[in-house]
């Protein structure tokens, strides 16, 4: 009885989370423009999507920014985590405070502060400034996912490697990094997702010339949004789902 | 793996650079304000790539132009914003040798008060501010006045425009009954107008404050009355026959959206080519047909034929024009006063 | 508009270049085995955070305490407290002291802040009430649903958050799906959009997973033997929950509250889409101060005030969880 209640409760929460998404997907196949009336099944909006240059361009900006930001943030963050891990207690505490700072800063403040930095430094806002902003909000997440793995690591392994004649550099690339690989992957995935979904920070750090999907959708909402965007998000949703399944499948294989 | 990552990284870094290599013109226009196939036509004819960007609000546009120098080559401000940009020294003079099609522009819109001799601006579209209403929901006897937006009968079905000057103008027209008050610099008038708007909002008369999305809401029957520009009204009426447009008796704003070239523009010649292209009869006609706004282009109007010339929404009568007024730019001091009062209106909560 | 205290245009580029050279140097010296200290690995990161996090924060403070010409002033804070402050000063110059004296204190900014805090509080409470049981049931070891459900909770977050919010519009509109349904069953149309409830719904919808994850993490880390021991000692289910499980999940709850409360205070997209201008929140105010009014100084002051408020509330929350054990999504 109790278990049934628990299941029903969880099911209701999931329905709450999924209903709008299902509505969106269904509407992407609606032949008409109206959100309220069903005017027959069609791929019309998907065709429109592919031929819409500004959406395709924004898609490219979103994905390329996310890739660059993830790569840079992962390298920077992993190095930082190893560095912080090797620090003495005092500086380590200071570094942790700095790392947690962006987490405690609301997106809008991060966005506004970076905008002020760019204006102050007279840097023209656009693609490059957006990438810098994305790296900035991604790095702390990488640090925070790698650091726990380092702490779990057995320090003796590293020392053993040195004793057995490994140079510190060799020990780093062949012992420490493989040990915290899982943390690095988690951090990179997290960075990628955050970067893909970001709106507020991108909004303040780019010019109207360089739009990513979120800022493009934002300006489109002022107009009454076209179902093309439903098609877009349904498509992205399916792609990400497939990606997830592949990643899961592969890690499952590795374990087996 | 390493190689792929490197390759991806280089590609990603290179692409935005490559995109900048061509001849371009960076256009910053109102949302939904052009037939986008015309952009492709322009690219085809001239080989100049159009980077098309959109805005929804005059005030926001000025800040964008100011804080992103060099980003735009052609911008489309409304008449009072042409004045503002000009006063701030943000516009460059247009070389009319490059715009032969300028001859198509209606004479009565030439050499306007906001820009002597059109030195900096070429009219792109013009029209009025008025009320779009649903004939099934609204008694037509009520809509001849802006007061209908304060009528209890339609509580919760009124869509107000979130636009500083337009919304204040309506309240000013009602409180003073004088059409020139749309440019008022009399604090008593202004605070009375703001008070009227606050009262309207706190009484729950307003369904929402918003912008362009309202034309679709009206088409879908999501509201009874909406403040709109004449072009949006034309668009909505075409999609839903129950809708009608009126310029109330108290008067209203007559506006002209213009093409201008910012002083910081990097591709001034391309910008002039683009403006000239927009002034061409066939292009101007295509734009009118697509967006439903009224064109200042004589040749285009001839091309459009009788249907267009008969529409009273698109072609306000002389009598309507006579009761309308241009906005003028406000200096920083008065602009701040307007903004402060309007911000109070926006923050008013429904009781 | 823009302050006169400025770096030369190449300054930021130079900083970025320096950073890249720096990273390269670190990498090279590791390869050549110069035996540098490993703690130095963090230095590019330190430099990055300095340029892109600390410096911008300093800039916010700088803009907040200066006027358009870069002179020190407290006017921006006066404007926060009294939103008519600048207008009164302006009126004094164009319409005389008498007219200026008729302007009372304007409370727009303060009221908006209070309203945002109230809405964020509501959103946090609702999310906690909905999310805690969900996390509890997910962590139920007998049902073995945890990992699957975590994935199911994450998946919706991949849909662009703006689109997720817009999707609610098509449900809530006058002619939307919910109203169509209500009409069919004979209830008739109800105005669902453009009010506080709609905004609250949108916020809870977007932020609920941030409440569930940390609570779930701390619950699933909990040693099940503790609950069993309580049962053995005669506690019933309810008492075990209240006396053992809940206190032990406190770090998760605190972390959840932080992660929901903060974005709720500052959201500006949700109130704009679902509230239709009837529910202005503080994020909205900051955004329009920057983007529509172009007043960087006042906007910075508002941001600074919000940051300070959030830091204060976080440090209060930290007191309840001194070890900072609350798990995030990480």
How would you sum up this structure, described in words?
The complex is a heterotrimer of chains A (256), B (351) and C (330). Chain A is an all-alpha fold and 256 residues long. Chain A is built from twelve helices and no strands. The mean pLDDT of chain A is 86. Chain B is of the alpha/beta class and 351 residues long. Chain B has two domains: 185 residues, Periplasmic binding protein-like II (D-Maltodextrin-Binding Protein, domain 2); 151 residues, D-Maltodextrin-Binding Protein, domain 2 (3-Layer(aba) Sandwich). Chain B contains 14 helices and ten strands. In chain B, strands 4, 5, 6, 7, 8, 9 and 10 form a seven-stranded mixed β-sheet that branches. A three-stranded parallel β-sheet of chain B has the order 2-1-3. In chain B, strand 1, helix 2 and strand 2 form a beta-alpha-beta unit. Chain B is globular. Chain C contains 15 helices and no strands. Chain C is globular, with a radius of gyration of 26 Å. Chains in contact: A-B, A-C, B-C. Chains A and C meet through helix 1, helix 3, helix 4, helix 5 and helix 6 of A and helix 1, helix 2, helix 5, helix 6 and helix 7 of C.
Which descriptors would you attach to this protein?
heterotrimer; A: 256 residues; mainly alpha; MetI-like fold; 12 helices; 80% helix; B: 351 residues; alpha/beta; D-Maltodextrin-Binding Protein, domain 2; 2 domains; 7-stranded mixed β-sheet; 3-stranded parallel β-sheet; 14 helices; 17% strand
Helix and strand layout, with pairings?
The complex is a heterotrimer of chains A (256), B (351) and C (330).
Chain A: H1 2-28, H2 44-51, H3 53-85, H4 89-104, H5 107-120, H6 127-152, H7 155-163, H8 168-179, H9 181-197, H10 200-205, H11 213-221, H12 228-255
Helix pairs in contact in A: 1-12, 2-12, 3-6, 3-9, 4-6, 6-9, 7-8
Chain B: H1 2-19, E1 24-30, H2 37-46, E2 49-55, H3 58-67, E3 74-75, H4 79-87, E4 121-134, E5 158-161, H5 164-176, H6 187-202, E6 206-210, H7 213-219, E7 225-229, H8 230-239, E8 243-246, E9 252-260, H9 268-279, H10 281-291, H11 298-304, H12 306-310, H13 318-322, E10 324-325, H14 332-347
Parallel strand pairs in B: 1-2, 1-3, 5-6, 5-7, 9-10
Antiparallel strand pairs in B: 4-7, 4-8, 4-9
Chain C: H1 11-31, H2 43-64, H3 75-81, H4 85-101, H5 108-138, H6 146-154, H7 161-172, H8 177-184, H9 196-221, H10 224-232, H11 237-248, H12 250-266, H13 269-275, H14 282-291, H15 296-320
